[in-house]
Amino acid sequence: MSEQTQPASAEAYPFDPAEYRMGESIGYLVARAKNVLSHEVEQEVNCLDITHAQATCLMMLAAGRGSTVTDLGRELGTDMGSVTRLLSRMEKRGLIERQRSDADRRVVDLSITPAGQALLDELPRIYCRVLNRHFHGFSATELQTFRSMLHRIIGNSSG
User: Fold this and answer.
1) What backbone phi and psi angles, to 5 degrees, belong to 20?
2) Which of 4, 100, 129, 138 could make a disulfide contact with 142, Cβ separation 3.0–4.6 Å?
3) pTM for this structure?
4) Which string of b and e fits 73-106 if b means at least 16 CB within 10 Å?
5) At 151, is the secondary structure helix, strand, or coil?
6) Is residue 125 very low, low, confident or very high in pLDDT (cuts 50, 70, 90)?
7) Which residues sit opposite 98 in a β-bridge?
8) Is position 44 within any domain?
9) Number of folded domains that form the chain
10) How far apart are CA 33 and CA 97, in angstroms?
C-alpha cells in the first residue's frame, strides 16, 4: 500500500481529502485559536512593556523547560538565531542573564534576574485572565479532555 493510499478504516485515518474544508480543518482551527490567544496575551503583557515572546521565555525558564538557547529554540519551535535575538533584547532590559557554563564553555546558561522575576510574578494572572475569557462556559471535564487531546496530538508527532 503506498503512502497516499489510505486503508478503509476511518478509525485509522479519520480525515478524508474529499471532505476537507479549510475553514473547518482542525489544524486551521487550532492555529486560529492559538493566534487569538497569542494576540490577546500580547495586548495584556504590553502594560508590562514586554512582548508575548518574552513573557513565554520567562515562563519557560521559570518552569525549567529550557536553560539554554538550544532548549528554548526546541521548545518554541523556532530557529536559534531568533531565540538569540529575543534573549539579547531581554538581557538588555535586565530580565535575564547569560553565563557560560563551567562544564562546557560552548553552552550559555540562562537565568532570570530579579527584574525578570518581578514580571514573571504577574504573568500567570495575565495568562489566566485571557484563558478564562476564551474558555468561558467550558466545564472542567471539557478542559481536561481538550488538554488530553492536545497532549495526544503532540505525542503523535514524529519530530
Assistant:
1) -65, 130
2) 138
3) 0.80
4) beebeeeeeebeebbeebeeeebbeeeeeeeeee
5) helix
6) very high
7) 110
8) yes
9) 1
10) 33
